[in-house]
């Protein structure tokens, strides 16, 4: 992070456009614990926006939610909430096309000082603690070519990276032709396996979850979990 001049999302997270389940209301919901599974099922099947999942129990026997939704979804939720003794508050919400600062898919990092591709490879190996990774050099580039910008997405990042302009793509996996397309657009690619690109975050999210649940839950990060693919 200290080596980066700037870090921004590749695809900034936006409120929905008017006319497409436009956000019109915000809701604060206090749901009895016995009804949480049913409420989660309803929310997951609909297009509520900005769902912050279930927060820790703020009162014994209840979970609190904060969501943004369209007037159509509001009607669906209200019926369930009224039928199941849930407390809720509804407020009008002005729809916005503005991006939510810092939110979105992937990240583009611009380095303060350019580094070589070989340096980038070494840094990635050290960070994820893997002895090997896969590198596809951009057309006309070598491992000593300098890079200034890096676009990264965990997992399978081709769809998010497709519109990102950067000297280097870093993701878990990409299809053969997506790699070739990137290389011919003068972008090199580092692949580190799908789950290896995600697994490092588990150590970050574990203490956050424990804090959310007020340390009433112990979160264990598996020491045996690993990517099914190995380099032999």
TrEMBL record:
The keyword Metal-binding applies. It comes from the Eukaryota. InterPro entries: DUF34/NIF3, DUF34/NIF3_sf. A divalent metal cation binds at residues 194, 198. It holds the Pfam family DUF34_NIF3. Keywords: Metal-binding. GO terms for cellular component: mitochondrion. GO terms for molecular function: metal ion binding. Belongs to the GTP cyclohydrolase I type 2/NIF3 family. This is NIF3-like protein 1. The lineage of its organism: Eukaryota, Metazoa, Ecdysozoa, Arthropoda, Hexapoda.
């Amino acid at each position: 992070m200290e080596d980066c001049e700037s870090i921004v999302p590749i695809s900034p997270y936006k409120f929905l456009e008017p006319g497409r389940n436009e956000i019109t209301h915000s809701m604060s919901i206090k749901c009895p614990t016995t009804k949480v599974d049913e409420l989660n099922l309803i929310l997951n099947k609909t297009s509520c926006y900005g769902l912050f999942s279930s927060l820790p129990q703020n009162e014994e026997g209840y979970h609190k939610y904060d969501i943004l939704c369209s007037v159509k979804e509001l009607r669906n939720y209200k019926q369930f909430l009224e039928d199941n003794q849930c407390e809720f508050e509804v407020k009008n919400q002005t729809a916005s096309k503005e991006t939510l600062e810092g939110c979105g898919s992937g990240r583009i990092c611009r380095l303060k000082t350019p580094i070589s591709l070989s340096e980038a490879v070494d840094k990635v190996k050290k960070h994820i603690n893997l002895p090997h990774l896969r590198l596809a050099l951009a057309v006309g580039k070598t491992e000593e070519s300098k890079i200034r910008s890096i676009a990264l997405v965990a997992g399978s990042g081709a769809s998010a990276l497709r519109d990102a302009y950067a000297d280097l793509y870093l993701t878990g996996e990409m299809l053969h032709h997506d790699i070739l397309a990137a290389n011919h657009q003068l972008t090199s690619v580092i692949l580190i396996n799908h789950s290896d690109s995600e697994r490092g975050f588990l150590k970050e999210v574990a203490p956050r979850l424990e804090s959310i649940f007020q340390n009433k839950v112990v979160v264990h990060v598996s020491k045996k979990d690993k990517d099914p693919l190995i380099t032999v």
